[in-house]
Amino acid sequence: MSSMAEKIRWGVLATGGIAATFTTDLLTLPDAEVVAVGSRTPAGAQAFADRFGIPRAYGSWQELADDPEVDIVYVATPHNAHFAAAELCLRAGKHVLCEKPFTINLAETLTLIDLARERELFLMEAMWMRTNPAMRRMLEIVNEGQIGEIKSVHADFHIPGPFAPEHRMRDPKLGGGALLDLGVYPVTFAHAVLGMPDAVTSWAAMTPEGVDETTGMVFGYDYGAVAALTCGMTSVSPVNALVSGTTGHVELGPLFFRPDAIRLHRAGEQTQVIDVPYAGNGMGHEAVEAMRCLREGLTESPLVTWQDSIEVMTLLDRVRAQIGVSYPGEEHV
Ligand SMILES: NC(=O)c1ccc[n+]([C@@H]2O[C@H](COP(=O)([O-])OP(=O)(O)OC[C@H]3O[C@@H](n4cnc5c(N)ncnc54)[C@H](OP(=O)(O)O)[C@@H]3O)[C@@H](O)[C@H]2O)c1
Fold first, then answer.
1. What is the tens place of the pLDDT at every residue in 245-259?
2. 124: CA distance to ligand 1 center in Å?
3. Which CATH superfamily is domain 2-128 in?
4. How buried is residue 231: exposed, middle or buried, by Cβ count under 10 Å (0-12/13-18/19+)?
């Protein structure tokens, strides 16, 4: 890796929508440099490199991973390819920031984490929500007991689509479905506030392609709390999150994963609006955190720990087993 005083050198793997948004934010960070991009095709890599002024463009993931002047690779493929792309980069000795959901299933997540641990490399799920100012402030408020004992979490994330049958949101081969793409946010939110549930109940309306279109989940906690979570890809929802406790509640949203303010209601008091602005598109915060970890020699981020990703993937697997979504090549969920 480049020395502490130098910029961290990023490689971007895949050239789709989120790769462009993330790269835009990365280019605003003074201690980051985007030095290379890798795509399935040379033309795709070159077009992305031209668009963002990236010096090196590779028509294969391996060439990107083998570039000695790349410190960390950001993986932004469809879900189904996260594992193969991240594994290839770790095996080539690269640190990795990998898009959400971390992988298709828990088994893949465990394999990646073992590999990172064995090779002493940094690995982080790009669950940007957990690094964003609003989420961090909300967790402080909750953990300080400002709204008492937490009794419930509500969160929704629906988008209207529509998506063509071959779109990655609908294609089982690409890990389609609302749960892995959108539901991962409400699940991660509830997990961050309440931890691992003791009971999970879920139901989904399915698409003709056999993935979940609209999904509801109830998580139960024996200590006396509940989470009610929904996601979907054919409707319009507020995309809010609400944490309720014995003495108040805190609300995030719309776009609870990236609001610029949160509302704190405490019984008998006026609502406080707390400003927690995000920078750029809100994706630079996870990059800042990844670079802080690299400079401090950490292999995992305390904001998005390996155990967090393991537990969220465990929950996603459990929900998928209940709603009957499995992906090609999976022996079991
Ligand atoms: N954090 C966020 O807010 C956020 C938002 C949106 C998406 N995401 C995540 O980011 C990932 C990508 O989403 P996206 O919306 O950017 O998708 P996208 O626009 O379809 O782009 C995905 C890119 O991956 C590559 N690719 C396409 N099909 C592939 C395949 N079959 N195998 C391997 N690579 C393939 C392509 O790049 P090349 O042609 O260069 O190979 C494509 O441009 C998803 O896992 C999603 O969950 C995160």
1. 999 999 999 999 999
2. 17
3. NAD(P)-binding Rossmann-like Domain (3.40.50.720)
4. buried
